[in-house]
Amino acid sequence: MGQDRVYNFAAGPACIPENVLKQAQEELLNYRGSGRSVLELSHRSKLFEGILADAQSSLRKLLNIPDNYKILFFQGGGTGQFAAVPLNLMGLSPSKSADYIVTGNWSQKAAEEAAKYGKVNIVCDTKATKYTEVPSRDQWKLNPDASYVYYCANETVYGVEFQEQFDSTIPIVCDASSNFLSRQLDVSKLGVLYAGAQKNSGTSGVTVVIIREDLIKTPLPETPTVLSYKIFAENNSLYNTPPTYPIYIAQLVYRWLLDLGGLPEMERINVEKSKAVYDVIDSSDFYRCPVKKDSRSRMNVVFRLPDTDLEKKFLEEAGKRNMVELNGHRSVGGIRVSLYNSMPLEPTNMLADFMREFMDKHKRE
Ligand SMILES: *Cc1c(COP(=O)(O)O)cnc(C)c1O
């Protein structure tokens, strides 16, 4: 790790691979002999077109994205897509309704936003069990006349992650903001996937949308141009000025992943990292993870200590060892360890060691 850099376990914007930062630094003042920074490149220039094309082809390779899917880049974050999804897709069926699987605050927010533009069926909601599980498939009944079914693959605040994809006769929309590219995924099972880059695949400012071509239809009439899948698809995401620098960082992250061995290798590392932390939790009475074992996130490991004073102390002592941003989301408290792709195995093991040490020092007899 470079001098003076801390171990950043933030949930997002999160750490970025050090090699990516170094390459961006090297190229910051003069990108490939152009005498200019990427920050200063016209989005209509050949150089930027090259960055965009490479980002798309690298992502296609990483995820094995079939030819009948388009890759689009939007601004507005995941929250922008909460509106874009219903605006673009509610009209796919005459019912103008959509099914929402609510497993945490992000899918809850998405459902609330969608209700502004059409009818929302909440097909299941795990609020009663405090968002600690992915309900099994037989607990939710999808409506065959809905325009789409929506789910959040990884609930970042509650640390709940779908371990498997599911089948459906209506198009599936997936918010993958916080586990995008962390594991293998069958894109052909999805109608639309979107992910804000700042959690696991770059920096804030760009949101990737992967969409099956036959779902790109005329959106609801009130749709803002900057959220129209149709206009962005027709203009290869260059209808207006795209977030050029975040797209460049995403391109570097995709290349970093390909060099590492792609998603099978990344998934293997992520399994090992999350296991290191969950093993400490499960072998103790000191730490407690509220999430059901089969629903636990590999990306955001949440847990509690016996009381909030100890949690405060835990955060302080971790900070002294340069391990930062371990606090749980402000709405739930506790501890949250975000183990995105860019967090290497070594600091993860350091954290697990620290957890054991802290427990030995503070556990009550
Ligand atoms: C962070 C997050 C969002 C919201 O993203 P913004 O870019 O802040 O709008 C949506 N969904 C998930 C799963 C997230 O983790």
From TrEMBL:
Pathway annotation from the record: Amino-acid biosynthesis; L-serine biosynthesis; L-serine from 3-phospho-D-glycerate: step 2/3
UniProt GO cellular component terms: cytoplasm
Gene3D superfamilies xrefs: Aspartate Aminotransferase, domain 1 (3.90.1150.10), Type I PLP-dependent aspartate aminotransferase-like (Major domain) (3.40.640.10)
GO biological process, one term: L-serine biosynthetic process
Cofactor(s) it depends on: pyridoxal 5'-phosphate
Residue ranges annotated for the Aminotransferase class V domain, each copy included: 6-344
Molecular function as annotated in GO: O-phospho-L-serine:2-oxoglutarate aminotransferase activity; pyridoxal phosphate binding
Pfam families (UniProt xref): Aminotran_5
Reactions it catalyzes: 4-(phosphooxy)-L-threonine + 2-oxoglutarate = (R)-3-hydroxy-2-oxo-4-phosphooxybutanoate + L-glutamate; O-phospho-L-serine + 2-oxoglutarate = 3-phosphooxypyruvate + L-glutamate
EC identifiers of the protein: 2.6.1.52
Record key words, sorted: Amino-acid biosynthesis, Aminotransferase, Pyridoxal phosphate, Serine biosynthesis, Transferase
InterPro entries documented for this protein: Aminotrans_V_dom, Aminotrans_V_PyrdxlP_BS, Pser_aminoTfrase, PyrdxlP-dep_Trfase, PyrdxlP-dep_Trfase_major, PyrdxlP-dep_Trfase_small
Domain of life, source organism: Eukaryota
Family the entry assigns: Belongs to the class-V pyridoxal-phosphate-dependent aminotransferase family. SerC subfamily.
HAMAP family, alphabetized: SerC_aminotrans_5
Protein name per UniProt: Phosphoserine aminotransferase
Lineage: Eukaryota, Amoebozoa, Evosea, Variosea, Cavosteliida
